[in-house]
Amino acid sequence: MKKIFFILSLALLACVSVPASAQKVSIGIKGGYNSATWEGDAVQSLNSLVTLSDDYASTAARSGFYLGGYVRIPVSPVFSIEPGAYYSQKGMQLTGEFSSTQLDFLNLNATITNKADYIDIPLLAKVFVAEGLHFYAGPQVSFLVSNKVNTKASVIGFNVLNQDLNYDSPFRKTDVGLVGGVGYRFSNGLNLSAGYDYGLNTVDKNGNLDTFNHVVKISAGFEF
């Protein structure tokens, strides 16, 4: 919690420190594609959380989206502070063969998807290095809205399971991380960006598993 209070204090200080002579404050909307995964002991983490065998398994990214808005507060012609709020789909996938406890002579081909949805609150510093071209970076606090584990399984080509389970309790409700990326803002207000979210807290609330949220983001938006 100390990290969260520290980041929020920085956000408040940044906003109240903007001079009255600063350029026009802008409001924007932005959304796009998320490619989310866990870094660290991802296979061990998901197997432990859903109590499955790890006979053979490999990890993959969960495809999702993020959508929200921001306020850009110019401090100078080339530097801005940008707080925002976004709904963001994170998590990861685990695929492989798992032994069936009921059919000893068959293996289940299974895909397990952790669907973790967050509200992200970033505070970004944005630097324009050329006309429209900019880089951004800053801290982010994320609040877990819901977490579900979807399990799909098949045996010799036949689907035998497709189930969503609510699975909030083992997961940390708040994540603190870093955000960075590059973007381009056109003169008409349209903007494009690509960025990366790097979680600093383990997804396991007890910290027993060394696993962190990592997300690649590609987005489009409009600034008014």
What does this protein look like?
The chain is mostly beta strands. The protein has one domain: Porin. It has helices at 2-16, 42-50, and strands spanning 26-40, 56-60, 62-76, 79-99, 107-128, 133-155, 158-166, 174-185, 190-202, 211-223. An 8-stranded antiparallel beta barrel has the order 1-3-4-5-6-8-9-10. The longest helix is centred in the N-terminal third of the chain and has 15 residues, at 2-16.
* Rg for CA atoms: 20 Å
Task: Spell out the helices and strands N to C.
Answer: HEHEEEEEEEEE
Shape: elongated
Structural class: mainly beta
Alpha-carbon distance between the two ends: 34 Å
Mean pLDDT, all residues: 83
| Total number of beta strands | 10
